[in-house]
Fold:
Amino acid sequence: MVEIEIDGKTLQVADGSTLIEAAHQLGAYIPHFCYHKKLSLAANCRMCLVQIEKVPKPMPACATIVTNGMKVFTHSEMAIKAQRAVMEFLLINHPLDCPICDQGGECRLQDLAVGYAESASKYGEEKRVVPDKNLGPLVSTDMSRCINCARCVRFTAEIAGMMELGQSFRGERVEIMPFNGKTVDSELSGNLIDLCPVGALTSKPFRFSARSWELSRRKSVSPHDGLGSNLIVQTRRDKVMRVLPLENEDINECWLSDKERFSYQGLNSQDDNGRLTKPMVKQGGEWKEVDWNVALDYAAHALRDVAKTHGGAAIGGLLSPHATLEEMYLAQKLMRGLGSENIDFRLRQSDFSADGHRHGTPWLGMKIADIGKLDRLLVVGSFLRKDHPLIAQRLRQSAKRGAQVCVLHSADDDLLINLEARAIAVPSQLPAMLAQVVKAVAELKGVATDAALTTVGAGLVDVNAAKKIAASLVSGGNVAILLGNFAQQHRQAATLNALAQQLAGLLGGRFGFLGEAANSVGGYVAKAVPGAVNGNAGLNAVAMLKDPRQAYVVLGAEPELDCADGAQALAALGKAAAVVVLSPFKSQAMLDYAAVLLPVSPFSETSGTFVNTEGRVQSFHAATKPLGETRPAWKVLRVLGNLLDVAGFEFNTSEDVRAEALGGMPEFVSGLDNGVAGVAPNLTASANGLERVADVPIHFADPLVRRAPALQQTRDSAAPTARMNAATLAKLGLVAGERVKVGAGGTAILTAELDAGLPDGAVRIAAAHADTFALGAMSTVLTVEKV
Amino acid sequence: MLIDERGMNSEHDMLSPELSSEALAKIDLEVAKYPVDQKQSAVMAALVIAQDEKGWLPKETIAVVAGYLGMAPMAVYEVASFYNMYDLQPVGKYKLTVCTNLPCALSGGVHAADYVKQKLGIDFNETTPDGKFTLKEGECMGACGDAPVMLVNNKRMCSFMLPEQIDKLLAECN
Amino acid sequence: MALIDTINPLLTTGWSKGDAGWSLKDYEARGGYAQLKRILANKMSSDDIIAEVKKSGLRGRGGAGFPTGLKWSFMPKAAPEKYVVCNTDEGEPGTFKDRDLLRYDPHSVIEGMIIAGYAVGAARGYNYIHGEIFEIYRRFEAALDEARAAGYLGQRILGSDFSFDLFAHHGWGAYVCGEETGLLESIEGKKGQPRFKPPFPANFGLYGKPTTINNTETFAAIPFILGMGGDAYLNLGKPNNGGTKLFSVSGHVNRPGNYEVPMGTPFAKLLEMAGGMRGGRQLKAVIPGGSSAPVLPAEVMMECTMDYESIAKAGSMLGSGAVIVMDETVCMVKALERLSYFYYEESCGQCTPCREGSGWLYRVVHRIEHGEGRAEDLDLLNRVTDNMMGKTICALADAAAFPVRGFIKNFRSEFEYHIEHRKCLVDPEVQRMGSGFFKAGAA
Ligand SMILES: Cc1cc2nc3c(=O)[nH]c(=O)nc-3n(C[C@H](O)[C@H](O)[C@H](O)COP(=O)(O)O)c2cc1C
Ligand code: SF4
Ligand code: FES
Structure:
C-alpha cells in the first residue's frame, strides 16, 4: 500500500494502482475517454491529465502509477487548463449536432463538454468527414463522430478475441475500420456500442427509435444461457426498446453477448410466427380466439378427461429450461396433482441413465468468478464461444494470464482462446477419449487405474492428444473439468459425467456443467424432473415422446426445435388427443398440434426467478405490462391448478411460489452436487457410419432469440449446412458447395461445406432449425449423398 | 542500374493474391531474424516483399501475408496503411518520390518536382496514362545534403537531381 | 560523397576512401574491432566499460542528448533476456549523418553495438534503418555478414563466452518510428505508435524486455571512446559535452554535407567549413538542431558555439545536429508551412492534441501563407501550440509546436506583414531564385 493525496484528501491505495483507480476509490471523477478498466491502457485521449506535485507537465491519470507521497491535483489551474485544451481538440473535428445524434443524452463527450469546453471554439477550418462502415446488422456507424480512443479496437482484439476492427492510417487521417469491408461478426459485438463514448458506434436495431431520456430502466436477468447476465431493460410505453448490461463483476462483468442484448426484438415480434396475444382454442379443426376463462376451462377439461380415462401417466409435461423457477414449480405441481410424474425440462438431453444416481443438482461446480482463478482447465463437449460467450471470454482472459485451457470435443471451432491442447473425436469416441485422459492422469499420478478404463480400445482414439491434455492438467494446482452443452446432450452423458468425476478426483480439482439455459439448475430445484417427488416413477423428456402420451402440457418450448429429437417430438404431439400450450409465441407447428394456446408472458412481462449455473438465485420483476391479453404463466398455472382442484395452489404472488419452491430466499440454492454413484462408464464406441455432430446455433437456441430479426441476419444465423472435413468429403465423393441429401430419421437437403475442424466420419449439422429438425435426433448416424 | 525488384518474378501469377514460393522463402529469411515466438516482427519486410512481387498491395495479398505470419488481417492492414511507402493503390511501373521538405526545398527540391511534373504531364499522386510513372511527394529521406533527392520504386535513391540528371533517369526507365 | 571537411576526424576517419572504405578489412586496417578484442581478451567488466563511457561525457546523438553511460547503467543486471537497439531511423528533416555513418563505416556501429551488448548483458541487437535508404540497409546487412563470418557476431564471440547477434530491421516511411518506443513497436511488427512511458525501455523495451536504445552516432563513438579513454574523449569537446559531433549542414551554404567538429566549435567556423553562404547572400536564419528545433535569427546564431548549452541558452536545441541554413531569399511563412505540413503528415494519430493540433497548425499557417491569414491567427497558433506541448505520449507534438513558436517569436513581423498584405515579404521571384537548382560543391 502507498499513501497519496488527491485534491487534499489522503488515502491508501494498493501498490501498482493507477491514479484513475485511486481517484475512483475516493469517489472522485477524473474525466476520461480511452481508459476502460477491462481494456489495455492506451493513454491516447489525454482527457485525464492531472497535475502532480513536482512534475512539470500534466500527467494522464489513467496511466500514471501511484508512488508514495504523491500529491495530485485534479482541479488545479494546470489540470483544468490541460483538460480544456484536450476537450477543445476533441471538439474541433467532432460534429456539434447533438440533437440529431443517436448518442445524444448518453454521450461522454457531450457530458464532459459541458464542464470542460470553452463556449466557442476558435477552430475555423473545415471539419473532417470520415466515411461510415457497414459493420453488420447490429452495430451502426457514424464515423465522423469518432474520437479515436480506440476502445473498440482494443475490445475486439482483447475481449472478443479477434481483431475485427483496427485503426488504419495515421495522424489526422486515422480511421477505425474493419478489414476489407468485412462486418463485425463476434458474438460479443454489441458491447462496442456501450464502449464507444460518443455516437460513432450505436445500436442498429435501436437506432433513432427513442431518446435515452424517454426510457424507463428496469433491472432484469437474461433468460438465455445459464450465466444469468444482469440486464437493464429499457422501456417506453410498455414496450422494451433496448437491453443493456447491468454490471455484475461476479456474473457478466460489464458485458453482454449479442443474444442477450438484442433478443428483446423477439418480444415485439408481430408476424404469424410472432407473439401470441390472445387465448385460442381449436374447435372442429378451427382456431378461435376466446376469452381467458373459456380457454382455461377448455384446457382444464381436456386434461381432466385424459387423466380420468387413461390415468395421470397418460399426460406428459414438457417445460422449457428458460421458464422461470415459479412457472416450473407450479407446472410440476399441476402435473403431479393430475397424477403424472412425466415431467421434464431437460429437453435436449438424450441420456438419462444418471437419474436416480445423482447426489444432487448438477451445476457449474464452482462460482463463475472462480473460473478466472483456475490455472488448468479441460472443457469437454462444448461449442463454448457460441453456447457460453461470456464464459469463453473469461477463459480467454485466463489463458492470457497463463492458465492452460484444453479442449475435448467433436469440432475444433476457433474459440479465440490460446489452447494448450485439444483432442477432437467423433461423438461416439468422446467417452473413450475422456477415459484415456483419466488413464493418462492416473499414470502420471502413479495411481492405479480403474479396471474399466484399462479395457478402453486405445486404437480407437488419439492417445497422444489425451496424454498432452493429461500432462497439462497435472501440471497446475487449481484444476477443473467443465462439461458443455454437447457433453450434456451426448448419448453417453452419464458416462462423461462419471469420467469427469473420476478425473476431478484424481486431480484434486473440481468438475461441473456449463448450464445450457437460464434455469438449467432451477429446473431441478423446482422438481421439474421425473422422480423428483415419487422415486423412480415417471418418464423423462425422451421417454414421454418415444412412448407418446395422450395429452401434453407444453410450457414455453417449441418441442420440434427445442427437443433432442424434434421430429419425434412433433410426431408425438401430433398424435396426442390434447396438447395444452402455454407460450408467449405462436407458430404454425403449434397451430397444428395444439388444442389450446394460452398466451403467457415472456421474462420481461412477469416476475420470476432464474437460478443460474452457479446456483445463484436471481429474481426479477416485470419490466413492462403483459402484451395484449398475455398473462404471466405462474398466474395461468395457478388458475389451472384451482380449476383442476389440485391442492396447494393458494399463492398470492410469485414470491409466495418462490418461497415454497426454495424454502426461503437464499442467495444460492442448496443441494448442488455433480456427483453420481453407481454409473458404470459405458465405453464401447457404438456408432457405425457417419456421425452427426449437432450444434445449437447461438441465435436458434430458444423461442425468443429465434424471433429477433437483427440477430437472424448475423453470420451466426446462416442457414445450416452439412459440414465435413476434406477426408470425409472425399470419401463420399463430394465437393464443398454441392447439394446433398442427408438422411437419418427423416431427410434434409443441405449444402456440403468443408470444415477442417471436424474429425473423420463426422457430419456437422446444426439442430434447432427448421431446415434440419426433420433429421430427428441430434446424436445419430447419417447417410449423405449427392442430389 | 535501376533497382527494380518489383514484379521480378515474371513466372508468378500476378492476378492471384497468393505469393510465389520465392517470395515466401524470402519472408522466411526475415522471420529468422526474430525470436521464434515473434514472427509478427517480419510483417514489414513481408509486406515489402509482397509489394515488390505484386507492384502494390491489394487487400487480398495483405490477407495472404496475415495468414502466413499468423496475424489478424486487420493488424497487417494497420501496418500497411501506417507506413508511407506501402502502396495500397496500384502505381506506375516507376514510382518517383521527390523530397520537398524544407532542407531539400532550399536547394531545388521543389524545382525538381516541378520539372518532373512538367516532363511527365502529371501532378503529385498521379500516374501517367501509359501506366509507367507515378509521382509522389516525399518527406525527408535523410539525404538533405544531396538535394534534390528522389527515390525510385522505394529502393533506389537518386542524389543531386538537376534537370540533366532527371532527364537521364527518365530515359533509363523503360 | 557528402563529407567535405572535419577538424579532429574521429567518427569520420574511415570516410576518406568514400564508398571504397567500408568493408571489414578496411575497418580492421584502421584498428577496427581492436576494442572488442581487448574487452573480450581482458574479460573487462561491464561496470568498467560503463564507467569509461560515463567519463567520456558522451551524450546521446539522437536528439535528446541524454548521457549514454547513465542510460546503460539503468539496465537491470539480472534480467535473462535483454536487447540493444540502434536508432538509424533518421527522419528529422535536415539530418543525414547516420546514413553516411552506415554507408562509409558500418563496422564502427556494429562494434559499438556489440560492446554495448556486452556492457548491458544483451545477447541480441537490432538496427532500425530509415525506410528511404534501402541501399544503406543492404550495405549494413553486408557488413553484418562480414562480421558474422569473421566471428565478431554469433555464438561465443572470438572464443569468449560472450554471444551476441545483430540484425537489421528496415523501416518503411514513418518519422515517428525515430521515437524510441514507436521504433520498438515497429520492430514488433505493429504500427509505430509510441508507448506511454514509464516504463522506459530499460525496463520494458523490445518484446517487453529490458532494452538499451541509442542513436547510430552514439554507438559509432563507443569504440573510439574505449580506444582513447573516456577522459581523452571528453577533452576533445568541452565539459559535459564530450567528444566530437557530426553536424549535417543543409540549405543555403555552398557545401552542404556532414562536418565532424569538436563540441563547442563556433557556428561561424562550421559555416565557414560548409563553404559559407551560397551566392554570397545574407544569412537570415538557422535551425540549429533539426526541424523540431526553434529557428534562430542570424545574429543570435552567429554568436553560438555548437554544443548543448550554448544553443539552449540561445533559445533552441542542438537536437540531432542538423543545421538548416536559410538566407535572405527565404519566406519564413513558407518555410514554416512546409515544416508544419511535415508534422501534420507524420503524427502517428493516437494522442488527441497531436492528431488534432498538428493539422490545425498546418491549416492556419497554410492559410496565412496563401494570403488568408487573420489578425488573431498568431495568437491562435501560440495558443494551439501551448495546448499541444507537454500533453502527449511522445515529443512529436512538441516537435510540431516548437518550430511554430520559434518562427513566430523570431520573425513575428514577417508573419504580420503576410497577414496584413496577404503576400510574402520576400518577393516570390527572389524566393524562387534563392531555392533554385543548385550544384553542390561549386563554391
Ligand atoms: C518524434 C521523434 C523522432 C525521433 N527521431 C529520432 C531519430 O530519427 N533518430 C534518433 O536517433 N533519435 C530520434 N529520436 C530520439 C529517440 O527517441 C531517442 O531519444 C534516441 O534514439 C536515443 O538515443 P541517444 O540516447 O543515443 O540519443 C526521436 C524522438 C522523437 C520524439
Ligand atoms: S505525440 Fe503525436 S506522434 Fe507522439 S504518440 Fe502522440 S499522436 Fe503519436
Ligand atoms: S483516459 Fe487517460 S489518456 Fe485517455
Chain A touches chain C at residues 41-47, 49, 56-58, 60, 63, 65, 82, 85-86, 88-90, 92-93, 122-125, 147-148, 150, 167, 169-174 (CB under 8 Å). The mean pLDDT of chain A is 95.
